[in-house]
Design brief:
This protein is of the alpha/beta class. The protein has helices at residues 2-24, 62-71, 93-103, 114-121, 123-126, 129-139, 181-186, 205-211; strands spanning 28-37, 44-49, 75-78, 108-111, 143-145, 148-152, 157-162, 194-199, 215-218, 227-228, 232-233, 248-252, 255-259, 276-285.
Length: 291
């Protein structure tokens, strides 16, 4: 009798895990964050997408597009890895179609992730795929942010799109980032406006804060793939167990980082207790309170 109960409980547990795995691998939630700053001269709303990896939520990503329209953003920020760089099988059609649809309605600023960067620098494998992809995005009016900066005077906000080298994405180890690295590729930060940095890899948040970012938007970690109660994300794409930064809001001095849990998956093709996440940002001028 006791063994029967144990077997029944084990089977029920496995079925529960499988059901949660299928559900969480095919749904997303909306996470809303509020950040206030006296540097902003006007409040605004933004949506941040990251780590889609060619995932579709409904035909043509209809469910995702609807959720973005519901958020009514002033602009769209992309945190990288909208596609999966997978050698000769690399296909960016899903990402391109989604971003085309977004660019018809909103200004879009596209930060580079490690998958876009891999497609860009590994020319022998990917040939001209990166240039073709970014050329098509450019035709839609998308701003590709490869260590680029753009100032939005209506909000006194500067968007900085950070692109770091592949050495900072190596698995199983953490490469130190020298203090002169970010100023060398981005220039010095401005103190007279709100510095919003799109930086795909969150592991260097302390360095981003030291550079002068008021707000950092990151992805890459996929929420830790599996969320463990009381412990957080289980593993990062760089094979670090229980990563310090797995998803949510973090602070370092005067800097804030919003780490999105991403919308898709790759390599470890599952999500458990960790649905995809669409990030909605409310950037508020001064010390406004939420309505």
């Amino acid at each position: 009798m006791g063994i029967t109960i144990l077997v029944t409980a084990a089977v029920a547990g496995v079925l529960f895990i499988l059901a949660a795995l299928i559900r969480d691998s095919n749904r997303f939630v909306t996470a809303e964050y509020r950040v206030s700053s006296e540097k902003l001269c006007r409040s605004c709303r933004a949506v941040m997408l990251s780590d889609l990896h060619n995932k579709e939520y409904g035909r043509g990503n209809a469910r995702l597009l609807h959720a973005i329209d519901q958020a009514a953003p002033d602009f769209i920020l992309i945190g990288g890895d909208m596609l999966t760089a997978d050698g000769e099988k690399t296909d960016y059609s899903v990402a391109l179609e989604l971003i085309r649809r977004l660019a018809e309605k909103y200004p879009v600023y596209y930060g580079i992730g490690n998958h876009e960067y891999r497609m860009k620098v590994c020319r022998k494998t990917y040939q001209d795929r990166f240039s073709r992809y970014t050329r098509e995005l450019g035709k839609c009016g998308v701003r590709i942010m490869e260590n680029d900066r753009v100032f939005l005077p209506d909000f006194n906000l500067e968007i900085c799109g950070l692109e770091i080298g592949r050495a900072y994405y190596k698995r199983f180890r953490h490469k130190k980032m020298d203090g002169g690295y970010l100023p060398g590729i981005l220039g010095k930060s401005r103190k007279d406006c709100f510095e919003l940095m799109i930086a795909h890899n969150p592991d260097y948040f302390k360095e981003y804060a030291a550079w002068g970012a008021d707000l950092v938007l990151s992805g890459h970690i996929h929420g830790g793939v599996v969320r463990v109660p009381f412990l957080g994300g289980l593993i990062s794409p760089m094979m670090h167990f229980f990563p310090e930064y797995d998803g949510g809001r973090f602070e370092e001095g005067e800097s804030v980082m919003i780490l999105g849990r991403g919308l898709g998956m790759h390599t470890i093709p599952l999500r458990l207790f960790n649905p995809g996440e669409l990030v909605v940002l409310r950037l508020e001028a001064g010390q406004e309170q939420s309505p």
